[in-house]
Amino acid sequence: MTQPYEPNPPTGLGIDEINLADPDFWLRDDYHAALTVLRDERPISWHEHPDSGKGFWSFVDYEDIVEVTRDWENFSSKYGIRVHHDHGSGQVRPGTNIMIEMDPPEQTANRRHVSRGFTPRQVKKMEEYVRDQARRIVGEFSAGDEIDFVQDIAARLPMEIICDIMGVDPADRPYLLDLSNRTLGDQDPDYGVTPAEGTRATLAMREYGVKLAAERLANPQDDLISEIARIEVDGKKLPEEQLGGYFALLIAAGNETTRTAITHGMHAFTKFPEQKRKFIADPVGLEMSAAEEIIRWATPLRHMGRVLEHDVSYKGHTLRKGEKIAIWYAASNRDPNLFADPFAFDITRDPNLHQSFGGGGPHFCLGANLARREVWVLFQELFSRFPDAAAIDEPVRLRSVQVNGIKSLKVRL
Ligand code: HEM
Q: What is the pTM of this model?
């Protein structure tokens, strides 16, 4: 880590060379500067997949992202939310009947079923458990140990927490972690996972959820899947398939995102050591603002996708029914009009109206309160035990259009 840190090097790309559909674009060090070019000069633009010729619209401006997110009647989620998968335009794919890929009112009803597990009160009640898990994981190591922060710490906490909420047997957690990695790593040759295998991993997770739901319907326990299994609509219990879908969504949504936030947080605390000193001096006073800034800085999901439900004329562009849209939080979260000095990692930033959890609207992240809590508790526990913990190498980044993932980060505790 001898090179001076430059979080926003200038881009060597001309505006027509910028292709947000190309996974290799996201491995470039200058991608933030390229996004700035788009935001300033072409805030709505068309990008084509390097291999298929199909593509999607890209929206990089904060207000446009708010508008797309709010207007679900035109910008629908029900045809899928991953723009890099070509599944035909405008056709509902079978098997993705989960709320993140639904529109209101169906999505609203589904969300109500699971949201009972994620109210601020519920999440507050989880704090001690989150802390115990964080303390247990961090406590396995000693000062001076060199670890892979991702595998040894960051990936474990969110998996333990969401599995505990859902009621997954500890012995099955490594299997689910592997499925979750496969689902999200399908654009990275290091994982050796094709998109078809990624889809199979998602289905395997769902199957696990269906099986667990069937067990809990017969024999309820003190966990969220049992609680949802008790719900009756028009006098009937929810089908196993629906419970399995909730399970797979929560496992997938709660894992990689929070792991990514924690890992970028560790990297940022290393590059901005004065911020680490501030956090250590007042870990309770700064917990909220630090978590928010870590999550802005990380932007774990670079975009979400939508599909045009109707032809729409928007700011001089004709957007056609069936075309895909990507809304790029990776761009809006570094907008200097909204964030003073956006390339400074500042854990006292306030207000911090980042869009990492979405641009508002019906799908706003259900797990936001839990994720914030996991992030701050982890760093409180980590730095109270290892105040000198720091990255000793550069992060190895995931090749992905959607997930701002880090595959490994060497840290000395
Ligand atoms: C830092 C961590 C996280 C980030 C950055 C994140 C980000 C997001 C984003 C961008 C969306 C979609 C918003 C939209 O389409 O408008 C979303 C939805 C969702 N998230 Fe998160 N998330 C995180 C953690 C979690 C956790 C811990 C859970 C639960 C355990 C969770 C559960 C969900 C669910 C269930 C949805 C779908 C909500 C719906 O469709 O109504 N997320 N999240």
A: 0.95
